[in-house]
Amino acid sequence: MTPRPHRELLDRLALNRATLARQLLLERAEMPALDAIERLAGMQSQAPHAPYVGLWTRLAGFRADELSELMASRQAVRGPLMRATLHLVSSRDYLALRPVIQPVLERGFAGSPFDISGIDVAALLAAGRELIEHRARTRAELGPLLAERWPQSDPASLAQAVTYLVPAVQVTPRGVWGQGGQARWTTLEAWLDRDLDPEPSRERLVIRYLGAFGPATVRDIQTWSGLSRLGEVVDGLRATLATFRDEGGVELLDLPDAPRPGADVPAPPRFLPEYDNLLLSYADRARFITGGEAVPLQPGLGARYGTLLVDGLFRGTWRITRHEERAVLHVEPFARLTKRDAGAVAREGEALVRFAVEDAAGYEVRFSP
Prior knowledge:
Blueprint: H1 12-22, H2 33-39, E1 43-44, H3 50-56, H4 64-72, E2 76-80, E3 86-90, H5 91-110, H6 121-134, H7 139-147, H8 155-165, E4 168-170, E5 185-187, H9 188-192, H10 202-213, H11 218-225, H12 231-237, E6 242-245, E7 251-254, E8 270-273, E9 305-310, E10 313-323, E11 326-333, H13 339-356, E12 362-367
Parallel strand pairs: 11-12
Antiparallel strand pairs: 1-3, 2-3, 4-5, 6-7, 8-9, 9-10, 10-11
Helix pairs in contact: 5-8, 6-8, 7-8
């Protein structure tokens, strides 16, 4: 039976709670980390340790070694995907999503400062593929090897072309909790011993987005994915989707049976890592950001900076520092918190810093004025 479309209004708070529910941020979920990563349609992982905090804040009893084992066993991988940015996804999702997102990577490289003009691109990619399949390599190692064949070209541009355009992943120990390691690349097929999905589907990608981030507009889906012309894909799915409207009358799309709790459902404080997709995956971020604040994108390995949600809204930032043997979480709210909210933030913050810095002798939460 074709679902009957909905036309009722979803105000900002209703959208906020609907997305928090499917992002596992209203209450911590009892589910394996791999299932959560797929439920979230991947987690941005420019900062390789950020997904550990993202899973800790969403899952009951999450332990860092659970994700480390998923990566070591190659059930989860890190590679360029949506918006041409590094994402942590399940291996099966990378195989399915990478062919759909390939045009985003090609457009991203074409618009970058890297220059491979005058080169046979197919020959370059074949040579680069052979080199990184023989041994995982950093871009700094790969570039000079390619420049032996194309000496007139910039080695960095040659290496970037390969890691943008060849389906590739960063190998462990990069991204493993408590370990370092340079960003070394190999092909997805070499790392997983499996081939890419021969029948990629933009329709499945739209459905995955709505399951993780809906209700949303076509522009929101395009912002998250980096793809364009998804309106025609949505039109093909329209008979199976529910439709709503926001306070401005804009059409919102959703899966018929997705959770949409009421606007009055309480939302506890949550600490998100840097680059969390919750705040980066919409053309219109008003359901989470009401004051026009910019989402900070800190450099580094991750798990030391991030953003704070209070009552489901972006209300501050956080960072962790070490002072001799003590670990300190600095909470910087945009405005004074109520006594009740401050207490809840402090309790959640102490749990965060204990997770993030297990070897500290003491822990402290400090609020900046």
